[in-house]
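In this section we walk through a basic example: taking a raw amino acid sequence and producing a predicted 3D structure, encoded as discrete structure tokens. The instruction is simple. Fold the sequence below.
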Amino acid sequence: MAVICFTNLKGGVGKSTLALHFIYWLLAIKKRSVAVVDADSQASTSAWLEALEMDIKCHRITDPDQLAEEIPELEKQCEYLVVDCPGSLGEATRCVLLTAFFAVIPITPSGLDLMSAAAAVRIVKQTQMARGGLPKAGVVINKAVKNTKLLKEAQEVITQLEPAVAFKQIIYQRQAIADAFLQGETVWSMKGTQEAASDYQKLFAEILRLAR
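The resulting token sequence is shown next.
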């Protein structure tokens, strides 16, 4: 029913980690029907879902034409179709944006990431002009360190990246999140991760509110 994609111009921003935890939250905690398209050539989301042994349909599609054709069909089979886009703004990502309802753009508090977020928002804006306002989009600060100048600067910049909204919830840098992939777990199944799980829960609830 709704296609939600995670995208950015560059890798290393935690895009796949956010996407995977969002998928898990929708399926295991919110009890929603979910399907996944892993369009990233690194296939991190596919590998992580396999390690979790989750009962979910994950489709590995990287060809732009195939993405454009299959996403609308896959969307009909579930409440939420989550797409992990490539770490670039090439043709595959553009095809996803032409089918998505909401685009989540994660950044880390750094100059390069803020530049990449601006480029991603520009592509989203171009797509919105062609699609009558879709996809909606939001920028989330990921891997942030509390009470730093970089974080404050990033918060100021993302409020200016219209038409994307700035998510209120920030995801802070935590060792448990960094370890989750190697352990084949999520923060909901690891010890001492209540704060990380709470941050994710608030962010994901915010995504669903904005994606209505």
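Looking at the output, two observations stand out. The domain at 2-201 is CATH 3.40.50.300 (Rossmann fold). The mean pLDDT is 94. In the next section we compare this with other chains.
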